[in-house]
Design a protein that fits this description.
The chain contains 10 helices and 29 strands. Among the domains are: about 150 residues, Sandwich (Immunoglobulin-like); about 210 residues, no CATH class; about 45 residues, no CATH class. It is globular, with a radius of gyration of 26 Å. Helices cover about 20% and strands about 35% of the residues. It binds zinc ion (ZN). The site of zinc ion (ZN) has 6 residues, from helix 9.
């Protein structure tokens, strides 16, 4: 079974309220940098003993050691202490509230215990809550030099904090400073002697306020979620995602003008129209691929705005010149460029299929997209192609997606196209790469994999036939056209009216029906995933499950082969049950499907 990304579930979004006098927004950039590179305050160092504090279900006990608070940062006539380092002996214990989360914890730690308890020798805390007043009330500070050990430890821990691509720690601290202290945030790096660190976060502006992460076993500073759940006093079964910071500003419309050179150089100007969904907001939080660099950000009055885009992270913060209020709409123009496309053996590798434009929410938006692309390549994106013209070197195409959709992508390459226009299906265009076909075929033959002929026609036939079947089962095809394009990767991904299909499905002769299932699975996402979405990651399995079953249903229908249908169903059942029984060297079961992508981990990749 090939891996299907379906619709990426990374949570996107935004921003913030402001109840102080408004500061000139370059101050915000300075403030951001101060928060990101804190110094230890030589007057706020103390030896501590026997201090215990609690954050929801987590208990921290500082047995004996030294605590170093960070120098305060000032903003709007207030001082904020936003971090501290503890070096010494301590213990951390964490007990999830539900059976599912307890089992998830046991699974990651291959242990029977449903409480995580560990000693630590380092605790780095970043916060915008009451931690400073709470911890400093009963201790006496001394003034002293900072040991080189302490400085080194801060440095090490910060690598974990800030070199993770999706980190938003500083933004979150800023958000409480700008909004109000009740939105206090608390994040810790728990350094365990002889083991990888773990990371606990309490964020009252998230749908699931409590998270515990561990270091990803293969990626140095990336982390993976162990636990994620609601804070005490909330119904663990109910999402309140609409009240989270993810919904403070919602994207309504994206209008972009993008140029791609034949070398793969990429540059774009994107006008993002947002609607504000909170009382007021002075800072916008976008996600944009880590390798893209922002040149400028301008508001609808043509005024340049300050912004911060970190190195190698997806986060882009935009500081507004004046607060936006509830219900207000504003259009922000972001100009950016960078390394989103790699070219190898004549094919383009798109590094980020959904963060090539600045995303501010996972909610649905309309799109107006203009692309200037090298004339020698075919180019496609989502929506209806309204116009295409050519000059000496480029093709200029204009596309419009009039009904709101969750995300947009594109594809380009030395494609051979095959058009299918038959009664009962939308116009279908299959784009198969002409580059390196022979070389890849030779590699597959060496592996004993049989190569098929006229693959654009075989792929096109499965796409057209599966649309016919799904129309009768699920209702009308939801978009105007369908572009089916080859990508030089091994997975598939579906966007409204656009498919990215693995190069493998454009090469291999498949007697077993797996390619039919794969192609039809991605087609089925036009109904399940792009049209019928999901509220949170807990429900994403519905669109994956429906698409996968629809793929199998198509295989049965087109081959008229019930035997094969039940064989594959049995294979899948065995696969699911064997994962449930034998992962982590026996004993631990894979998690329930409701955990979605969290059932899979760097150690149990096949579980979702
Ligand atoms: Zn899928």
């Amino acid at each position: 079974m090939k891996k299907c990304i379906g619709l990426i579930s990374i949570c996107l979004i935004i921003l913030c309220t402001f109840s102080y006098n408004y500061a000139v927004n370059t101050e915000m950039v300075t403030l951001y940098n101060e928060l990101k590179q804190p110094n230890i305050d030589t007057t706020k160092i103390a030896d501590v003993e026997n201090i215990t504090f609690q954050r929801d279900v987590a208990t921290f006990h500082l047995e004996k050691g030294t605590i170093y608070f960070f120098k305060p940062v000032s903003f709007s006539e207030n001082n904020y202490v936003t971090g501290a380092l503890f070096i010494g002996d301590g213990t951390f214990s964490f007990t999830p509230p539900t059976k599912i989360e307890k089992e998830q914890l046991a699974r990651f730690h291959a242990a029977e215990e449903q409480t995580f308890e560990t000693g630590f020798d380092v605790l780095l805390m970043r916060f915008s809550d009451t931690t400073f007043s709470e911890l400093s009330s009963n201790i006496s500070f001394k003034e002293m030099e900072i040991s080189s050990d302490a400085a080194k430890k801060v440095n090490q821990c910060e690598k974990y904090m800030f070199e993770e691509r999706n980190n938003d720690i500083i933004w979150r601290i800023l958000l409480s400073m700008l909004k109000n202290p009740e939105t206090g945030y608390f994040h810790t790096h728990v350094g365990i002697p002889g083991h990888d660190p773990v990371f606990f976060t309490y964020d009252p502006l998230k749908d699931e306020e409590i998270t515990l992460k561990k270091r990803h076993s293969r990626l140095t500073y990336e982390k993976e979620l162990v636990n994620s759940f609601h804070q005490k006093g909330e119904n663990q079964r109910v999402s309140h995602i609409e009240k989270s910071s993810d919904f403070f500003a919602l994207a309504k419309h994206y209008k972009s003008n993008t140029t791609i050179e034949s070398s793969g150089d990429f540059s774009s100007t994107c006008d993002v129209t947002i609607a504000v969904n909170t009382d007021s907001i002075i800072m916008l939080h976008f996600w944009l691929a880590s390798k893209l660099k922002v040149d400028s950000v301008v508001n609808s009055n043509g005024m340049h705005l300050s912004f911060h885009k970190g190195e190698n992270v997806h986060e882009l913060l935009v500081f507004l010149d004046s607060p936006l209020t509830m219900q207000q709409e504003e259009t922000i123009r972001i100009t950016y460029h960078g390394d989103i496309l790699d070219k190898f053996l004549g094919n383009f590798y798109i590094n980020s299929s959904v963060f090539w434009y600045p995303r501010i929410s996972r909610t649905r938006a309309t799109y107006d997209l203009t692309f200037k692309t090298p004339k020698q390549y075919e180019f496609v994106t989502i929506g209806k192609k309204l116009k295409e013209s050519e000059d000496e070197n480029y093709k200029i195409s204009h596309w419009k997606q009039a009904t709101p959709v969750v995300s947009a992508s594109f594809n380009l390459g030395p494609f051979k196209t095959h058009k299918i226009d038959i009664e009962g299906t939308p116009p279908i265009t299959v784009c198969m790469s002409d580059a390196a076909r022979h070389e890849i075929a030779q590699l597959l033959i060496k592996e004993g994999i049989p190569i098929g002929k006229n693959m654009e026609k075989q792929v096109g036939a499965d796409v057209a036939n599966s649309i016919q079947l799904f129309r009768s089962l699920f209702g009308p095809y939801p978009y105007d056209e369908l572009y089916v394009t080859e990508i030089p990767y091994a997975h598939g991904e579906a966007f409204p009216g656009l498919l990215h299909l693995s190069r493998v499905t454009f090469q291999v002769k498949d007697d077993w029906g797996y390619e039919e299932i794969f192609r039809a699975h991605e087609v089925a996402h036009q109904w399940w995933g792009t049209t019928v979405g999901y509220k949170t990651y807990h429900d994403q399995w519905l669109s994956e499950g429906f698409a996968q079953y629809a793929g199998l249903w198509y295989m049965q229908w087109i081959r008229k082969d019930n035997k094969r249908f039940f064989q594959i169903l049995d294979e899948w059942k065995d696969e699911i049950f064997s994962n449930r029984k034998y992962i982590l060297g026996g004993g631990a079961e894979a998690g329930p499907i409701w955990l979605g992508y969290r059932t899979s981990s760097s150690e149990t990749e096949g579980d979702y």
